[in-house]
Structure prediction request, 407 residues.
Amino acid sequence: MNTALGHLRVLDLTRVLAGPWCAQNLADLGADVIKVERPGAGDDTRHWGPPYLRDAEGRDTSEAAYYLAANRGKRSVTIDIATPEGQELVRKLARESDVVLENYKVGQLKKYGLDYESLKREKPDLVYCSITGFGQTGPYAQRAGYDFIVQGMGGFMSLTGERDDLPGGGPQKAGVAISDLMTGMYATIAVLAALAHRDRTGEGQYIDMALLDVQVAMLANMNTNYLASGQAPKRWGNAHPNIVPYQTFATADGHIIVAVGNDGQYRRFVEAGGRPDLASDERFATNPMRVRHRDTLVPLLAEMVKTKTKQEWIALLEAAGVPCGPINNLDEVFENPQVQARGLRVDLPHSSGGPVKLVGSPMKMSATPPHYELPPPTLGQHTEDVLRDVLGETGDGIAALRAKGVI
Prediction:
């Protein structure tokens, strides 16, 4: 298959989520990604279960579903980098790679001779990306960074959650590790930009990615709202500070989102619900008036919406041209005909004998689409292949490394 990055090799020294997510993006686009893991233990997320992958007989394997989410398309090699022999193997692999990804604590790899400055001397055009919680500089550089903490420190949780004056009000984290995932995405972009620069100039470079930097940057218009006004935005739950109604509502059997963008849509919304009087009432006729009288109007709309089912409302509002949508659980997501048509579910054969069910890349490319050849590897699955084929190690040499516990 013609792939965008089939000419590249990536040495992945990362674990958990942000780094592996970046490496998986590069693997989906064709790069040969070699994942280096600790012998006998591997990536921490291999053990973050249940649930676990099941084999052909339906029995749990040792591969946690969390690990499977971020490690498709890679080859796993086990190397003990605390040993001199292990450090030399990683240096050799770096010399044969275009990119090194790592997410160790600041300065930790320097004592092994695996930091950027050490590897740059051996391979000047190397692209080296470090991912940490707070970056390589600043007063917090030595702190361990965790997604949950960064969501709070970076302002995300000040914007997310129900209003403080309502039941259940207060800060809320995202349902997925959004700081980790977005850092993985930004790191992917940075790596590709550095490779483009290398291809033009022959010069490698160092990339310093931090979860906190990314979390602050991704607040987008909320940042500029604050910088322009000097007023910190507050939480609005599932409502909008400037538009009413623009929120979730409970139906007779679930929830829907109604996103009214103008007065005409609002009128059609309440007419569909049999309450045209809510459009003719001067308190609710225009959006500024609806915002002003939000606390009076929203309970009336909530009572109206409860009279029909989720699907009845979606059919009515789509026919009326009122923006709306369901709040699906994951059963409903993967049964959705649009999700199925876009091919987001990917099943790959696994060495356990059963298939591994994954979600494919959302990148749709006409000439070099993502490909899915390798399932998430078992621990050390490709150690001998990589040492033999990439580094030219012999069978006796590999056996000697294994006997010393290096691999």
